[in-house]
Design a protein that fits this description.
Helices cover 42% and strands 11% of the residues. The chain is of the alpha/beta class and 342 residues long. It has one domain: 3-Layer(aba) Sandwich (Rossmann fold), CATH 3.40.50. Helix 1 crosses helix 2 and helix 4 crosses helix 10. It starts with 17 loop residues before the first helix and ends in a 5-residue tail after the last helix. It binds thiamine diphosphate (TPP). The site of thiamine diphosphate has 14 residues, from strand 5.
């Protein structure tokens, strides 16, 4: 399957500010190296359960994190590590969560698919496909009801567009004009099923008018462009309480999860998408447009490598949770009884 044509060819975003480009590149590279380190640990049998990598999609989380204001919320799928890192969660705590350790982001209770860090605006990775869409609608309803001015950003795979809960959540968001942006991360496959075998239409935003939402759709190959276009949707949600449906054409370079070798796609196809990799593009911009040297790029990569080594070391040396800990966090009452915050 060839990459789809650009629905709206990338508008060059004029004058990349070097410091911002550096920041975006740094954040995208941190996510990629974090996940590569996680994949290694998984292959060594140190992480169990599922591990869904975000490699190839990093620009989306980085652009989003850059746009969020305090109080804004991300609600996403099980492919959630990138958001945690982009939103500022400690990579040691993220890695420890993958290892199921006490020092993990949610005390080792959630694992890869259930990262949660409300201080940073991450209101959960969710494992049930489409099940989190009504949850996001609920967050947005609370914002409108309380008048807190916050925007909810709900990320879902294209496979989730064909789930009943997604329809219910989007339907109510449109009906009640809630401050929410639904972002479909269309990475072309739901597990091994390509989009053309999932749905009768190519363009998933055709559903937006049915929910009285506005829409936008583009190929994610430039973090600045992605940021600029997401910014419009977020502003509309914040200022006018107008929800929208965005479809981002992107690609995951790895299999669906670590157990998927991804044999349903050709090397050619993967290579074509790699040419559009926003991380690579940012590196080229740094080098060719801003004269950043190879040595400097290598030094940055090395520093990030050290951060990830430290994260792994932290995860490995951390204790497992106390057995009774597994019953914490299920019900507010239990947490309060145990002296937690609920
Ligand atoms: C309700 C439900 N049905 C099936 C599954 C099994 N499942 C896990 S991921 C997945 C594919 C989802 O693909 P997509 O929404 O495109 O997201 P992606 O994994 O590509 O990010 C399926 C079918 C599930 N977790 N939940």
């Amino acid at each position: 399957m060839s990459p789809p044509n650009d629905p709206t060819p990338a508008a060059p975003v004029a004058g990349h500010d070097l410091e911002r480009l550096r920041h975006f590149y740094n954040q995208m590279l941190r996510i990629r190296r974090f996940e590569e380190a996680a994949a290694r640990a998984y292959t060594q049998g140190k992480i169990s359960g599922f591990l869904h990598l975000y490699i190839g999609q990093e620009a989306i989380a980085v652009a989003t994190a850059d746009l969020m204001r305090p109080g804004d919320r991300v609600v996403t799928t099980y492919r959630d590590h990138g958001f945690a890192v982009a939103l500022g969660c400690d990579t040691g705590a993220c890695m420890a969560e993958l290892y199921g350790k006490k020092t993990g982001l949610v005390g080792g209770n959630g694992g890869s698919m259930h990262f949660f860090a409300k201080e940073q605006g991450l209101w959960g990775g969710y494992a049930i496909v489409g099940g989190h869409v009504p949850v996001a609608t609920g967050h947005a309803f609370a914002s409108k009801y309380l008048g807190d001015g916050a925007v909810t950003l709900c990320f879902l795979g294209e496979g989730a567009m064909h789930i009943g809960a997604t329809h219910e959540g989007m339907h109510l968001a449109g009906l009640w004009r809630l401050p929410v942006v639904f972002v479909i991360e269309n990475n072309q496959y739901a597990m091994g099923t390509p989009l053309r075998r999932q749905t009768a239409v190519d363009d998933l935003t055709v559903r937006a008018p049915a929910y009285r939402m506005t829409s936008d759709r583009w190929v994610v190959r430039d973090v600045f462009e992605t940021r600029a276009r997401l910014a419009r949707a977020i502003e509309q949600a914040r200022e006018e309480s107008q929800p929208s449906l965005i479809e981002l054409l992107t690609y995951r370079f790895r299999g669906h999860s670590m157990s998927d070798p991804g044999k349903y796609r050709s090397k050619d196809e993967v290579d074509q998408w790699k040419e559009r990799d926003p991380l690579h593009r940012a590196q080229v911009q740094l080098r060719d447009e801003h004269g950043v040297s190879e040595e400097e790029l290598d030094a940055l990569d090395e520093r990030i490598g050290e951060e990830m080594d430290a994260a792994v070391e932290f995860a490995e040396s951390s204790p497992l949770p106390d057995p009774e800990h597994r019953f914490r966090g299920h019900y507010v009452e239990d947490d309060l009884a145990a002296g937690g915050e609920g």
